[in-house]
Amino acid sequence: MKVVVSCLILLFVFGCKDNKEKPIEKKELIMVKPSEMANLMNEMYAYNLSLKQQVTDGKILNEFPERFLNIHSAILTDPSDRDSLFEVNSRLFIKTQKALFKSNTDNILGNYNNVVNSCISCHEVTCMGPIPRINKLYIK
Length: 140
Prior knowledge:
Blueprint: H1 2-15, H2 36-56, H3 84-101, H4 108-125, H5 131-135
Helix pairs in contact: 3-4
């Protein structure tokens, strides 16, 4: 019995090392500044989300936001994405967005969803990340 107690005391004394952990180095988070295009597209999303309710109510109270024309000149996150497909898709977006404001109550829903379709069409080619978010704009 004395041997067991002695072994337990030895294990306790020598088994309890100073297990101080090294302090964890905190790395500074670097926030990447969004590009002009990213900011513009976030603005477009928010604007079209507000239009969704107006369309659902059968009316458009707003006007085409001229700042959306900056889609043709805004600096992209990856400048190489501004290719001929981007140019075609950006012109289509502007065309469908303008058509929405000329809609009557008979075609307002279809024209609104065409705007969303034009966003999806472009993002299927480049920068697919926002597609699930854009899908939330559809009116079923």
